UniProtKB/TrEMBL annotation, chains A, B:
<keyword id="KW-0028">Amino-acid biosynthesis</keyword>
<keyword id="KW-0170">Cobalt</keyword>
<dbReference type="InterPro" id="IPR030960">
    <property type="entry name" value="DHQS/DOIS_N"/>
</dbReference>
<dbReference type="InterPro" id="IPR056179">
    <property type="entry name" value="DHQS_C"/>
</dbReference>
<keyword id="KW-0547">Nucleotide-binding</keyword>
<dbReference type="GO" id="GO:0009073">
    <property type="term" value="P:aromatic amino acid family biosynthetic process"/>
</dbReference>
<dbReference type="GO" id="GO:0003856">
    <property type="term" value="F:3-dehydroquinate synthase activity"/>
</dbReference>
<dbReference type="GO" id="GO:0008652">
    <property type="term" value="P:amino acid biosynthetic process"/>
</dbReference>
<feature type="binding site">
    <location>
        <position position="143"/>
    </location>
    <ligand>
        <name>NAD(+)</name>
    </ligand>
</feature>
<dbReference type="InterPro" id="IPR050071">
    <property type="entry name" value="Dehydroquinate_synthase"/>
</dbReference>
<feature type="binding site">
    <location>
        <position position="265"/>
    </location>
    <ligand>
        <name>Zn(2+)</name>
    </ligand>
</feature>
<dbReference type="GO" id="GO:0046872">
    <property type="term" value="F:metal ion binding"/>
</dbReference>
<keyword id="KW-0862">Zinc</keyword>
<comment type="function">
    <text>Catalyzes the conversion of 3-deoxy-D-arabino-heptulosonate 7-phosphate (DAHP) to dehydroquinate (DHQ).</text>
</comment>
<keyword id="KW-0963">Cytoplasm</keyword>
<feature type="domain" description="3-dehydroquinate synthase C-terminal">
    <location>
        <begin position="182"/>
        <end position="325"/>
    </location>
</feature>
<feature type="binding site">
    <location>
        <position position="152"/>
    </location>
    <ligand>
        <name>NAD(+)</name>
    </ligand>
</feature>
Length: 361, 361
């Protein structure tokens, strides 16, 4: 088991990464000062697979634990579903020292984090991400949220977990397409920060896609380290943290325009990364070779390069409404070379238009 | 205009207190680095009185301001009403630098603070409390929340405003009973922390109840100073801040048992302070003279000394369920002498029972 420290907040916290680490959840929680009652929030699918096991592990470590499963899928990230979880928390008598454990993918993690951040004005929480996407992205960094009918993740907080437990063995049950979705974020880390990780991904697509533990452990650990380093420097997303949104500006627009279902989050980000790379080249910030390298790795990992279902006219309004826009300006994360990006808020709309034409045809 | 600094969070913030300070709201917001769009959250009653005036003041200072009024009363502190405010915030295009202005009493302040704490994971907010209770208590210290069907203030955050503007002139339109409700909290500050304030209240009930500006200014400023000092030492209510709950343990139970309507918050706290004082004497922590002094000032300010509508059996479960209870233990704030309190979590239930009998007969 490897440990990545995240130095954020008062005391910071650790991400534990390894094979079959789930069995150590209770003891790790105890070692991190947690005790008493624990509400394990999960979805019906993940709960059916690992719910009983987790309750057993927590009981053995002395916790009084109960399970609450929400319906799988993005619709559970709502204030209405949150209200049902609050009811459960109240009736089982969770107090300020009790723990919320998020057992699931990004939806469960974001919802559980929002509950933990706001129940009694904040109680401890623990992330046990069960998808690659959640392991390398949403479970690290403390961004928690629910959706509003008018937009995703509009209601939330910056609220750090007490620990994150990543069990690579859980990925064995993950469908191929969800694995690829997580890999899009791993590719992103390579592009924004680490040419070595990028090159590892280029050379090792076979073991990665075959879910070989050693390969997964390497890319997950490196992704967590990169994200932790960025978040440590800018927890509240005032500047540097924005680089984590590479590919997300167009990605969010594609997701929204296709009704959050046609493309997974990672697939949308892949399309967005192609767009952001092309935009960078069009602005003379990177070479066409860099764009081709990025297109190549995305294809290598079975991720889409464009969204022919979308149109420029429909995508444009979503870009402007993106929640990272400040004063109506879009903050574009653009690439200089593999491992190095920059932020620009003065990209001419004409150029953006051309790129959107490209990725939607 | 006087200024009380609250050294909490990254930069701290100021409470501005004076007569007719409302006119300076826009310029003070500007001086505190705020700019752009502002959503003024109020209730229908306060909005009718001061809404247009505040929009004018903000427009003059360069803000693009809009008003949103929720129905008056505690029922507006719900996730459902919060959702309507989020919709307004989204459709008017508030971004991360925009401001939420709370114009109203505790309900509006708590709701607005919850919105500000969670919209886009937190945007700036400003408190303009219009009741005495909000001016001396809820607007200071950053506790924001909405209610859940199963209990009050169970969903919220610790989230500090960028500034608090107290205009004493606004209290001239405040009904007598609401004034008394706020005065209960002022009396509390005297008991927990400041014998001088207590003695000022004893000697000046006439000018205070007549709303003489000088008297109001004095007790409001002193109350804010005391609360600020406590909050600075313990923002998240781990220990010291609990002393602010003097009178609130029984007070909350009385409020809940009588359906949040029969007694105002301040009236319930007054009853709770009588109960807590009697409990302190029963435990040998203070003299009967101290209890009498407290009963006397509460009567002097037209506040109730007991709740004959309640019964011990009904109050008891509310005490245990209070959100400050940790591991099922009630943290009692008890009085040693005027200006000095202590916290005890091992009060025998029998003694509590006796005191509840006393205040309900």
């Amino acid at each position: 088991m490897e440990e990545v420290k995240v130095k954020v907040g008062q005391d910071g916290y650790s991400i534990y990464i390894g094979q079959h680490t789930l069995a150590q959840l209770g003891s790790l929680m105890g070692r991190n000062g947690l005790t008493g009652k624990a509400l394990v929030l999960t979805d019906a699918q993940v709960g059916a697979l690992y719910g009983e096991q987790v309750l057993g592990i927590l009981a053995e470590a002395g916790f009084t634990a109960e399970l609450f499963a929400v319906p799988p899928g993005e619709d559970s990230k709502s204030l209405a579903v949150a209200e049902t979880v609050f009811s459960k928390a109240i009736t089982m008598g969770l107090d300020r020292k009790s723990v919320i454990v998020a057992l699931g993918g990004g939806v469960v993690g974001d919802l559980a984090g929002f509950i933990a951040a706001t129940y009694l004005r904040g109680i401890p929480f623990v992330q046990v991400p069960t998808t690659l996407l959640a392991q390398v992205d949403s479970s690290v960094g403390g961004k928690v949220a629910v959706n509003h009918a008018l937009g995703k993740n509009l209601i939330g907080a910056f609220y750090q977990p007490r620990l994150v437990l990543i069990d690579i063995a859980l990925l064995q049950s993950l469908p191929e397409r969800e694995l690829a979705s997580g890999l899009a974020e791993v590719i992103k880390y390579g592009i924004i920060e680490d040419a070595d990780l990028f090159s590892y991904l280029q050379k090792n697509s076979r073991p990665v896609l075959a879910k070989e533990p050693e390969a997964l452990q390497h890319i997950i650990k490196r992704s967590c380290e990169i994200k932790a380093a960025v978040v440590e420097q800018d927890e509240k997303e005032n500047s540097l943290r924005m680089i984590l949104n590479f590919g997300h500006t167009i990605g969010h627009a594609v997701e929204a325009d296709t009704g959050f279902g046609l493309y997974s989050h990672g697939e949308s980000v892949a399309i967005g990364m192609v767009g952001a790379a092309s935009l960078s080249a069009a602005l003379g910030l990177c070479s066409q070779e860099t764009v081709d390298t990025i297109r190549c790795i995305i294809a290598q990992y079975n991720l889409p390069l464009g969204a022919p279902e979308c149109t420029t006219d429909r995508l444009m309004p979503f870009l402007v409404r993106d929640k990272k826009a400040v004063g109506g300006k879009i903050h574009w994360v653009l690439v200089r070379s593999i491992g190095s990006v920059l932020i620009k808020d003065d990209v001419p709309p004409m150029t953006v238009d051309e790129i959107l034409q490209e990725i939607t045809c």
